[in-house]
Every structure is written in structure tokens, then in C-alpha cells.
Design a protein that fits this description.
14 helices; globular
């Protein structure tokens, strides 16, 4: 019987390549459905287990209570999203950007005085920064979504591979990039299908991500109606396949590395609570997908905020490997 921990490092990398291929095939055939399934079933379990693992790692910061500040910022995003609507389009992106800047401080600075000074300077800098549509799109839309699930996943994989110097690992990193690019070269017009009203309604909160990605990649379409472009054109399907693949593999990558990351090694009580919350989350999605989205919104964003220091650490490791510091 298979047990967690029986696969070696190379086998895990090859298994990941297999998971990428399966995710890509499903994304080509049923992109919207795959995304909705992965987000509702795999997503909540990923949030819960990763937050628990990050807590054991002290969130990769130098301060014991740094995660509280990031959690407060996450609550502010939730507050201005559902309780008190944001006064401007730049308000929520600015909170997210401040979370990134605080994470940089938390990872590199230990002295509390320097931390306070830098945190204040970051706040002043954001307040004085010129904002607009580009700021809103890249920080407010792309950063917590496609950058988080694709770019940061790729960086996390590369960081691990650089430390282990594994050929199979480098192959998996390359495979992720090549498969992602395939969605833009293999148009697969014959795989277009009719998107159901249920799917359209359930996907509504992610709608802007698709429209801005279509614009970013310069995908041409004869239609000018945003709804038609997203749900009924080849350009819309190309982007949705990329999104569905990115999210699905982001979750599968986490679970495939259980034996390496050891996120499952928690007290029995913690594991039972995690599973109970996961089952409850899935039930909410089954009852009404939009209820599930809103109910899990805070948890979803919380894992994004709490992961920022790990993202910083990953890029720091990659940078050190590419440009060694001379002693």
C-alpha cells in the first residue's frame, strides 16, 4: 500500500510532470468546470494545510508575531470588499502592496526600530504613489491570483530545485513553463463548448481576471461584448485554460510534495479540525457556489498574505544562486 514518504525526490518531480500533463488535458477540454472544481475542492484544503505549515515555519519571518500584521491587512481587504465598499479602486491594491512591502521588511530586518521606520516609509510611499488602471490590474487583480498561483509556484519550485540540484527538478520547472505556453500556441478551436448558465454565474467573481488577461496577452476577438469574449470566443477559452491549469497545478503541486514539506505532520486534533473545516467548506460550495466563494474569501486571501514572506524567501534564494555574493 502506498504511504506518504515512499517517493524519492526525483520520483516526486516526475510525478509532478504527470500532474501537469493531466491538469493541462483537463484544462483544454473543460477549463471553466476544472477551475470551479479545483477552487472549491482542492483550494480550501490547500489554504488550511499551508497556513498550518507556515505557522510551524514561523511564516519565514524574523519576528514571532509578524503574521498578525499580515492577517490584519487581510481582514482590511475582506472589510473593504464585502462590508464597507472601498472608496477608490486603489484602496485594496494598496493594502495588498503594503503586505508585500511588510513581508520584505519581516524577512530581512530584525531590529524593531528599523522595522517601524521602514514600515512608515512604505506607508508614506504607497500614499504618495501614482495609481491608475495599471496599478489596479497588476496589484489588485494579477498579484493575488495568477501571479500567486503561477509565478510564485514556479519560483517556489525553482528555489527547491536549485538547493537540491536535481535534473528531474529542473525538467519539472521547464515543463511548467512549456505547458503554460502551449495554451497560447495550441488554439484548439474544436474544443470550444457551450458554457452553462450555472458556470457563468459561479465564475462571476473572477470575471475581471479573464478580461484583463485577454487584454494583457493581446488576444484579438471580433466581439466587443466582455461577456461574449470571456465565455464564447477562442480568446476567452485560451485564457481560461491557462487559468484553470495554473490554479489546479498550484494545488496539486502542494499536495504532491507532502513527503518533502511534511505539512501533514500535525497533532491529531489539528488534523481533525482541518478535515472538518474542509468538509464544511465543500458543503458551502455545493449549496451555492457564490456563498462558498464569499465565505472562504478571507481564508483564501489570508493564505496569499501569509505566503508573501515565503515568496520573498524563494526569490532571495534564486537571486543568490544566480548572482553569488562574494565574501
Amino acid at each position: 500500500m502506498f504511504k506518504i514518504g515512499t517517493l524519492n525526490s526525483d520520483q516526486i518531480h516526475y510525478a509532478n510532470i504527470g500532474l501537469m500533463i493531466v491538469s493541462a488535458i483537463l484544462a483544454f477540454v473543460l477549463p471553466f468546470e476544472l477551475f470551479l472544481f479545483s477552487y472549491a475542492i482542492l483550494g480550501p484544503l490547500h489554504y488550511l494545510t499551508e497556513i498550518g505549515w507556515l505557522h510551524k515555519k514561523n511564516y519565514f519571518t524574523k519576528g514571532k508575531y509578524d503574521f498578525i500584521f499580515l492577517s490584519v491587512l487581510c481582514f482590511l481587504v475582506f472589510y473593504f470588499s464585502f462590508i464597507q465598499p472601498a472608496k477608490s479602486d486603489s484602496q485594496i491594491p494598496s493594502i495588498i502592496l503594503y503586505g508585500v512591502l511588510l513581508s520584505l521588511i519581516f524577512v530581512f530586518i530584525k531590529d524593531n526600530l528599523y522595522r517601524v521606520i521602514l514600515a512608515l516609509l512604505a506607508l508614506i510611499g504607497i500614499a504618495m504613489a501614482k495609481t491608475g488602471l495599471t496599478y489596479f490590474v497588476w496589484i489588485g487583480i494579477f498579484l493575488p491570483t495568477i501571479i500567486h498561483v503561477f509565478v510564485f509556484t514556479w519560483a517556489f519550485m525553482l528555489y527547491g530545485v536549485i538547493k537540491n540540484k536535481s535534473f528531474a527538478g529542473y525538467l519539472s520547472v521547464a515543463a511548467l513553463g512549456l505547458i503554460a505556453m502551449s495554451f497560447f500556441f495550441i488554439k484548439a478551436p474544436g474544443l470550444q463548448y457551450q458554457v452553462s448558465s450555472y458556470v457563468t454565474k459561479s465564475y462571476d467573481l473572477f470575471y475581471l481576471l479573464n478580461t484583463f488577461l485577454i487584454d494583457f496577452f493581446g488576444l484579438s476577438t471580433a466581439s466587443t461584448d466582455p461577456t461574449t469574449i470571456v465565455y464564447n470566443t477562442n480568446a476567452g477559452f485560451v485564457i481560461m485554460r491557462f487559468i484553470a491549469f495554473s490554479y489546479t497545478y498550484h494545488y496539486l503541486n502542494w499536495f504532491s510534495k507532502t513527503s518533502v514539506i511534511q505539512w501533514h505532520k500535525v497533532p491529531k486534533k489539528t488534523l481533525i479540525i482541518t478535515l472538518a473545516l474542509w468538509i464544511f467548506s465543500m458543503a458551502l460550495y455545493v449549496i451555492d457556489y457564490n456563498i462558498g466563494l464569499k465565505a472562504l474569501y478571507f481564508l483564501s486571501f489570508l493564505h496569499v498574505f501569509l505566503e508573501f514572506p515565503l515568496n520573498v524567501t524563494s526569490f532571495q534564494g534564486i537571486f543568490k544562486a544566480v548572482i553569488p555574493v562574494k565574501k
